[in-house]
């Protein structure tokens, strides 16, 4: 097993499930010390699993739509580990599965607050800590829905397109500080969020029919892409939106 992240201080938001949990476990398996951030108590389960496997992890309950929570999350990393080296800003939701004219303003505001403003707030607090540490790497979770549109998830797609643009501009702002910022754009991945969307079997069948690889990704597959972007193996990648979608957007 590679130890690319030996003693690196790493934050993972949305670390209680899905891609976030898979990434947190993968970082820990390569020597990282983790802050597992999540709005749900499931983040504590991820941190406990890491400790049970001999790793170093702490859970910080975090609503990324709240600036104070994001600040506390970063402060915890610095207090526990002395620095912040890597952040995977992954927390996201998808409330408004409906045509745009049927999306209510409350759902729009909440999904924008978590998926887009949440990434902004995380970076706003992470970047100063990384500058004090001499640099670092940030990976933001966008989506294949950040590079193409999909009917029925207009609010989600709007936020994920925003994450791609935010990532590119922030990368240019801070590469001179030694901070590399990139995004990962997963296609359909077997997470709780996808399971909710696939309650309608016809939706799942359509998604599979349009995915050349013929299946959905596992969270672990996307986590491997995240770890690559966060590692020195991606040292010349800046402001990149890496698509991992089984060929969906190649058509």
Polypeptide structure, described:
With 251 residues, the chain is an alpha/beta fold. The chain has one domain: NAD(P)-binding Rossmann-like Domain (Rossmann fold, 3-Layer(aba) Sandwich), CATH 3.40.50. Helices cover 45% and strands 16% of the residues. The chain has helices at 18-29, 42-52, 67-81, 105-132, 154-174, 192-197, 201-209, 219-230, and strands at residues 9-13, 33-38, 56-61, 86-89, 136-141, 179-186, 241-244. It has a seven-stranded parallel beta sheet with strand order 3-2-1-4-5-6-7, with helices on both faces. Helix 3 (67-81) packs parallel to helix 4 (105-132). The protein starts with 8 loop residues before the first strand and ends in a 7-residue tail after the last strand. The relative contact order is 0.14. The mean pLDDT is 95.
């Amino acid at each position: 097993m590679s130890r690319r992240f030996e003693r690196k201080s790493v934050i993972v938001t949305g670390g209680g499930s899905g891609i976030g949990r898979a990434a947190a476990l993968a970082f820990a398996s390569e020597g990282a010390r983790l802050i597992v951030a999540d709005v749900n108590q499931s983040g504590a389960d991820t941190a406990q699993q890491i400790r049970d496997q001999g790793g170093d992890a702490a859970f910080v309950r975090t609503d990324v739509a709240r600036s104070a929570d994001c600040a506390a999350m970063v402060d915890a990393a610095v207090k526990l580990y002395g620095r912040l080296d890597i952040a995977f800003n992954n927390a996201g939701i998808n409330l408004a599965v409906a045509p745009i004219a049927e999306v209510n303003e409350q759902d729009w505001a909440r999904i924008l607050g978590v998926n887009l403003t949440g990434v902004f707030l995380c970076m706003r607090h992470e970047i100063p800590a990384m500058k004090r540490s001499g640099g670092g790497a940030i990976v933001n979770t966008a989506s294949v829905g950040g590079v193409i549109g999909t009917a029925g998830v207009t609010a989600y797609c709007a936020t994920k397109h925003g994450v791609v643009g935010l990532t590119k501009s922030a990368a240019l702002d801070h590469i001179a500080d030694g901070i590399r910022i990139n995004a990962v754009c997963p296609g359909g991945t077997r997470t709780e969020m996808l399971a909710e969307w696939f309650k309608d079997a016809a939706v799942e069948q359509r998604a599979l029919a349009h995915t050349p690889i013929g299946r959905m990704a596992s969270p672990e597959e996307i986590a491997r892409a995240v770890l690559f972007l966060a590692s020195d193996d991606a040292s010349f990648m800046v402001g990149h939106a890496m698509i991992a979608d089984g060929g969906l957007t190649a058509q």
